[in-house]
Amino acid sequence: MQKIKSYVLPIAIVLGLLLHDYCAAFSVVVPYIIFTILLLTFSAVDIKKLRFKPMFTWIILFQVVISLGGYVLLKLLNVNEIIAEGVLIGVLCPVAASVAVVSTMLGADRNTVTSYSIIGNLVISLVAPIYFSFIGVNQDMPFFESFLHILRRIGMVIGLPFFIALALQLCLPKANSFLSRYKGLAFYLWAVALFLTLGQTIHFIFLNGKGNWNSILWLGISALLFCIIQFGLGKWIGHKYGDTIAGGQLLGQKNSAMGIWMANHYLLPLASVFLAFYSVFQNLFNSWQIWRFEKRKKKKESLITKSTDPDSIQE
After folding, report:
1. CA atoms of 179 and 39, how far apart (whole Å)
2. Residue 147: is its pLDDT beyond 90?
């Protein structure tokens, strides 16, 4: 299964490149896929046992403050609006729904990453509409009208799955148990969402990339820079609270499909290229982390086996 998962990103990129016209046509289904992914993820955990941890405060503050602060700073420096919006959505983008899978494989505490996955997504579902009310394509609308319009769409995708899962666990536990059996489908749905969103971004590049190659280059460079910053800072924060891996993954691993969808609908669509690049970088880094972890694990097991093997002990 792990070998299959390692090929999902390159396959999504290749198919997105070859079938970008169709991806653009079917992009309307992406929010429904993301909704289903989150519902399956949330139904698989006991929401009543989840707890807020002090580490979450710093991660949330970074996403909320640095996303807007980075945008404002870049605008003050007269940086291209596309790049500024790319940085905004790249930092604000909620944590990946699949973060628990990678994090626990690397040794992180499952309850910690699951708790933040829910809390972080709910916070972004409230903050994003505020930011998109005065940044992006909805600036001509009155603030409150714009906020409610965006909140309704993003809240339905991110926030509603949590409340449905909570209601099912409290009132219809059998229905929740039925849903949780299919939590493994979330990975394959994520692959479909990634394919469609990357394809939509590639399609937009083909249509509007001419004359914007310099912006696309800087979006790629800034995506790499922020990927390093977010994973590095997250690990540092996590180390302070006794879970280095969880901190790095919670701040660094982004729901790129969700971020690309938000950028395409509420910002300049070319800004979504930031997260397309970011998705590549974060998956390469996660693949390296898993490879290194498995290598160390095998080496440790080999040493234990050797030390307990009577034939290897010399008198």
Report:
1. 8
2. no
Helices 110-134 + 81-92 axis angle, to 10: 150
Q: Can you give the pLDDT at residue 223?
A: 94
Q: pTM for this one?
A: 0.80
Residue 20 lies in a domain: no
**Separation in Å, CA 122 to CA 14, 160, 278:** 32, 9, 22
| 3-state SS, residue 95 | strand
For the record, the structure tokens of 213 come out as: 């190659």
Max CA separation in the chain (angstroms): 84
19 within domain boundaries? no
Q: Is there a domain that residue 9 lies in?
A: no
CATH of the domain at 276: 1.20.1530.20
Q: Where are the alpha helices (DSSP H) in 44-182?
A: 54-61, 67-76, 81-92, 99-105, 110-134, 143-171, 173-180
Please state, in angstroms and rounded to a whole number, the distance separating the CA atoms of residues 62 and 70.
11
With pLDDT > 90 as the criterion, what percentage of the chain qualifies? 24
Residues 193, 37 contacting (CB under 8 angstroms) = yes
- Tally the domains of the chain: 1
Domain of residue 226, residue span: 27-312
How far apart, in whole angstroms, are the C-alpha atoms of residue 301 and residue 38?
A: 36
Tell me, yes or no, whether 4 lies in a domain. Answer: no
